[in-house]
Amino acid sequence: MNEITRSLRGNSNAARDIAAHLHPYTNLKKHESEGPLTIVRGKGVYVTDDDGKEYIEGLAGLWSAALGFDNERLARVAYEQMRQLPFYHSFNHRSHEPAINLAEKLLAMAPVPMSKVFFANSGSEANDTVVKMVWYMNNALGRPAKKKIISRIKGYHGVTVAAASLTGLPANHRSFDLPIANILHTSCPHHYRFAQDGETEEQFATRCAEELEQLILKEGPDTVAAMFCEPVLGAGGVIVPPRTYYAKIQAVLKKYDVLFVADEVICGFGRTGNVWGCQTLGIEPDILSCAKALSASFLPISAVMVNERVYQALKTESDKIGTFGHGFTYSGHPVAAAVALETQKIYDEMDLFGHARRMSEPFQRHLKALADHPLVGEAMGVGMVGAVELVGDKKTKAVIEPVTSAGATVAKHALERGLIVRNMGDRIAICPPLIIQPAEIDELFSRLRAALDAGAEELRAAGKFGG
Questions:
Q1: Of 136, 229, 252, 359, which is most buried, counting CB atoms within 10 Å of its CB?
Q2: Which parts of 226-284 fold into alpha helices (H)?
Q3: So what's the pLDDT on residue 8?
């Protein structure tokens, strides 16, 4: 009887989970036989499963646990806020101090001048809100045809109907009848995979901008309203666009009066080495969405910041109709808002963003060193996020068939060695809590290299890899 079979017997956590719990982003049939990894506690950059095994959480949960997995101060703030005002809403001219204070803090932190903050509960809800705002705005401006929204192949913006439509990943569309109308996708700015032979990064960036302009012209500039971009593409594989890319596409968008929406759900709050990915990559957005590290993921909360031009259009239309008919019961929930505000205070007091910049040097050095591994075709990253792409041949960039088998194999070996990473196809993402220390970075990459070695050996034995 193997370990998995033993764990699924009787009234174990695994057996109960299989019987009752429908999981997101999971092969549901496979889950019935393999069961879950059940995490029961966390401390610092480590989490522990229900068998007592400890892991370095190399993806910060889901790109989000900037402060790691324990913080008594945030627990106290949540408790005190629950005692004082456990819930209130922001509909119909109601408010409360935590939401007001957090909105002020975010506007002070914004990478460009912003006018107002709208709160939601997840990155998906924030981006879905932006789609509705963009449509509402253009109706207010008397431009009912200017409704199409562009995002990118391999971009990720969430799982609600509109946000999943924006997402440029097949699994988010197949069998869900997505994307919906008025959503367009342009080229993925991944030089390693999509550049032509001999094409420099700048030439590739120019071609991406030209393809964007041709798409706008084909559709008609009077029909294209906005473009969504993650500064660094996250769930699409941790793709850092090439030099000059954002300058060139922003010039195209301004030419045709197309709003730039920065999806900072992953990049925001220090992940790329600055407070915002916009600052790292040279972006000046009209609208910015954020979530995840807004509260260090201690409680669900997200936000949308809009500039004055967008706000004035929303204001005019809401006055015409009588209300801005959008919002969530938990928009700016007082406990979540209080925790998020305290999170930002902690970031400031401990200089977490400065620490992340300092840790970026050893993190990126270790990451780039993995490019020498026979299984690695590319090692890419910025700040405290990165990925390696696994290939069957470094010269031809040939994938290992079936696609995703190499990534799943390496992720499995990492788990066995006490390291949690995420494989997105055959790209292995690394995105640890920002509080990580140099010795922990060393240990993370030591375990990852060992997983790559073991993965290469297994794939070689199976005849899938000859490197």
A1: 229
A2: 245-255, 277-281
A3: 57
